Amino acid sequence: MPLLVEGRRVRLPQSAGDLVRAHPLLEERARLLRGQSVQQVGPQGLLYVQQRELAAASPQDGSISILGSDDATTCHIVVLRHTGNGATCLTHCDGSDTKAEVPLIMSSIKSFSDHAPCGRLEVHLVGGFSDDRQLSQKLTHQLLSEFDRQEDDIHLVTLCVTELNDREENEKHFPIIYGIVHAEDLFIPTAVNIKTAEIYRASFPDRGPEEELRAARALTGGPMISIYDAKTEQLRIGPYSWMPFPHVDFWLQQDDKQILENLSTSPLAEPPHFVEHIRSTLMFLKKHPSPSNTLFPGNKALLYKKNEDGLWEKIPSPGS
User: Fold this and answer.
1) pLDDT in tens, 248-290
2) CA 93/CA 202 separation, integer angstroms
């Protein structure tokens, strides 16, 4: 079944700019989103999603009311929501395997939505910019095409990607929006329309737990995975395995410029903490070349659950 905007079939292939010009409501929504101020989101009720991760929850969840991600330069943040029961998935896609990732997003929502008496699937795409290598443009096309190939009708509600999320400064291009949240409650200092489940520009001081471990998995080429079990309301990390990162000592000896130019898809547009984040992740990989031995004894996952203060708290794995 097709990808739809205002009940009409989306004509593909076409650029994001051509698509919004054909559908003025999309352009208006992108303009409103770009014009929002950035909200700093604390840990209360938050599930932060890193690159190549997805998480799905519903309004009935007793622990999670906010799904969010940031640091998207050429990456895109995807939100898929079923309007019948509010089940929502947020994921941070980098184009590594979009063809496999979109069905994962769909199945995460269908695990909730099969029992919804009515409603429709709505998708929001945010991220990317007019980068020199056109990686954002490629990812936009991949995501639109893959959602268009799914069996279900999917309604494109927000499209703020690539050239629609681009700003130019001193002849250099940057994303306008690096991060967003989807909220089902009022934890953000902005009114949220629960019926329309609007999305908001955001940044996240707290990205835990196991931020370095999760980043290491992505840097070593790990595929898209689901990190949250909505039935138990637990965050599940691992067990992961990876090959030792090639030439890790060499990269740790390089200056900031070399790391930025060689380990980023968009060196000129990265947020200020990018190099520090990469160095920290490389140090983690050097310390744990075989994570199954040092981080996941007994090959058991690391489990976390929100405590009464809304913070992630480690809990024992079954059988440990």
Assistant:
1) 999 999 999 999 999 999 998 999 999 999 999 999 999 999 8
2) 17
Token pair 């905007």 in the structure block, residue? 5
Q: What is the mean pLDDT of the chain?
A: 89
User: pLDDT at position 197, please?
Assistant: 66
Using CB atoms within 10 Å of the CB of residue 109, give its burial: 0 to 12 exposed, 13 to 18 middle, 19+ buried.
buried
User: What distance in Å separates the CA atoms of residue 214 and residue 205, rounded to the nearest whole number?
Assistant: 16
**CA distances to 2, 213, 221 from 281, in Å:** 40, 8, 13
Query: Which amino acid belongs to residue 99?
Result: K
Whether 295 shows a pLDDT value over 60: the answer reads yes
Going through the chain in order, the beta strands assigned E by DSSP cover 3-5, 8-9, 39-40, 46-48, 53-57, 66-69, 76-82, 88-93, 121-127, 154-161, 166-169, 172-175, 180-183, 199-203, 225-226, 228-229, 234-237, 302-306, 312-315
